[in-house]
Amino acid sequence: LRLVRSAAGAARAALRLRGGGGVAPLTLAGGGSMPAVGLGLWKVPKAVTAATVTDAIRAGYRHLDCACDYGNEAEVGEGIRAAISANLVTREELWVTSKLWNTYHAKEHVEAACRRSLVDLGLECVDLYLVHFPIALRFVPFETRYPPEWIHDPDASAPKMEVVKVPMQETWTAMEALVPLGLAKHIGVCNFNTAGLRDLLAYATVRPSVLQVELHVYNQQPQLLRYCADEGIAVTGFSPLGAGSYVELGMSTMEDSALSNPSVAAIAEAKGVTPAQLMLRWALQRGTSVVPKSTKMERLVENLSLDGFTLSADEMEQLARLDQRRRYNDPGVFCVGMGAFCPIYD
Ligand code: A2P
Questions:
Q1: Sign of the dihedral defined by the CA atoms of residues 96, 193, 282, 244, in that order
Q2: What is the pLDDT of residues 277-316, one digit of tens each?
Q3: Are 189 and 211 in contact (CB under 8 A)?
Q4: Is the distance from the beta carbon of residue 242 to the nearest atom of ligand 1 less than 6 Å?
Q5: Are 152 and 326 contacting, i.e. CB atoms less than 8 angstroms apart?
Q6: What are phi and psi of 26, to 5 degrees?
Q7: Which of 60, 103, 108, 238 is in Cβ range 3.0-4.6 Å of 11 for a Cys bridge?
Q8: Cβ 252 under 6 angstroms from ligand 1
């Protein structure tokens, strides 16, 4: 425990000196910068969300990756308020991301959805608002269910997802309107491929600052990263530790985890870091940001302590060879169980 406390203290000190856990933030093409390591809030239970957020801020996190769909934005807001009241941080020092859920893609719903997230988070604006998926679902009013999740009416005799036809240009134009309203400082997208981005850039008057996609050593997406670098779009990798997050969902097994890959384990051991730290450092050295989730203090600290070592070109190359194009979070697979075949990457 003492070790964890002193590691937390060291992380805080590093943050004060250098910002963002000692790791350089990502500079965004449209101005501003985003801390490279954020706390992922997906699947953090409501009951522990506020405390996890406050603890994470105490440990040095300055980037919180939230979404309507995670169902815990009100609790994230509580955790932020507690941290600000305890003088751990100011609002201006935090980077808060939220995401537009699939049921709110029509132009008349985008602003209301953003405002609802802001009310829950207790903020006047988010630093980044992302389109969560390039999938539009039939609208569900807030009063009916919030967050509405994937299935249109869970009480129906045959509950299923209901995909609707909303052009992304309509959604994006409504996203752009959030910026002059002061509701979002930056906007962006998640789970897009290069074709989706190319189309978006053909009509965007406000360019996406950030793309968030699944990235880990088993799903490296080098062409997508290169395309984003060329277009000045910063990239955030979700599930940067790979399979672990999907084990509890029954979508993977720990044997499938890159954390136990022999090459990862060998390089990590040689460097005196954990496999998780190795994979996060690899992601940072590729120029991406990461949003690993954890509810455990020692892992929160571990995942932020990435500045004391670097990977050589040879080690980066060894890890590059582990790519399997293995995607765990694929609507083309998991939507089938909800009565819809909804591939977006193929
Ligand atoms: P836990 O919250 O119990 O720490 P995601 O893919 O959504 O970022 O989730 C990361 C997954 O990996 C979670 O299941 C989390 O569980 C686990 N995890 C987070 N940090 C570490 C770590 N440093 N070492 C091993 N597992 C971790």
A1: positive
A2: 999 999 999 999 999 999 999 999 999 999 999 999 999 9
A3: yes
A4: no
A5: no
A6: -90, 130
A7: 60
A8: no
